[in-house]
């Protein structure tokens, strides 16, 4: 299966680096799970990150490891150069005809659109941009998806993060209903 992972960070960090090499258990965390999934053969080398903009712990090492784990990267600011349609094209080209799991970390959105998360980083996508990207994925074989890191307690009075997450969930479900995956 391929993975389309929309997030502020790559989450393919080497557990020996981010977990401190103390124990296997200490190395399993929200920043290493895609690295572990790759090592266990659960994801294909046709996966992609999108919306990435956070500083890297080890810039060269993290990027090399991300490639080794089967990911390409679309940075958040790439949308300024290639537009929404360019991001969609890159995603579809990378995923191809494989089954794909879509994971959306709400912090892929700029804090102006989703303040209620644990890892806010300015310079993210707008809700409209992300929803347009998801709409553009019509026809791919989605086998599942999730939205993570929504922290309602930190949301604004208008609950804009929760509303964005609900709309993203609606988009993911719509994509899955439009093209059911056949066994």
Count the DSSP helices. Answer: 7
Helix content: 25-40%
Indicate the proportion of strand residues.
15-25%
Main pleated-sheet profile: 5 strands, parallel
Strand order of the main beta sheet, please? 3-2-1-4-5
Instruction: Please tell me how large the radius of gyration is.
Output: 16 Å
Helices and strands, in N-to-C order? EHHHEHEHEHEH
- The low-confidence runs, each spanning 5 or more residues with pLDDT under 50, are none
Can you tell me the overall shape?
globular
Q: Which structural class should the secondary elements be placed in?
A: alpha/beta
User: Average pLDDT, to the nearest integer?
Assistant: 89
Structure description:
- Helices cover 39% and strands 17% of the residues.
- It has 7 helices and 5 strands.
- It has helices at 15-18, 24-27, 33-39, 59-68, 78-95, 127-135, 160-178, and strands at 2-6, 47-52, 71-75, 99-105, 141-148.
- Strands 3-2-1-4-5 form a 5-stranded parallel beta sheet.
- Helix 6 links the parallel strand 4 (99-105) and strand 5.
- 38% of the residues are buried.
- The model has no long low-confidence stretch (mean pLDDT 89).
């Amino acid at each position: 299966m391929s993975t389309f992972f929309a997030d502020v960070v790559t989450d393919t960090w080497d557990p020996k680096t981010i977990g401190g090499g103390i124990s296997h258990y200490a190395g399993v965390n929200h920043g290493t799970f895609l690295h572990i999934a790759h090592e266990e053969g659960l994801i294909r080398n046709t996966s992609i990150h999108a919306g990435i903009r956070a500083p890297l712990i080890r810039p060269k090492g993290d990027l090399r490891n991300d490639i080794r784990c089967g990911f390409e990267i679309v940075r958040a600011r790439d949308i300024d150069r290639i537009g929404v349609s360019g991001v969609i094209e890159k995603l579809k080209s990378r995923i191809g005809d494989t089954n794909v799991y879509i994971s959306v970390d709400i912090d892929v959105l700029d804090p102006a659109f989703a303040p209620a998360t644990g890892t806010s980083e300015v310079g993210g996508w707008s809700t409209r941009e992300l929803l347009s990207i998801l709409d553009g994925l019509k026809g791919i074989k989605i086998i599942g998806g999730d939205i993570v890191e929504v922290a309602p307690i930190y949301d604004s009075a208008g609950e804009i993060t929760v509303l964005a997450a609900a709309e993203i969930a609606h988009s993911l479900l719509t994509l899955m209903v439009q093209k059911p995956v056949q066994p």
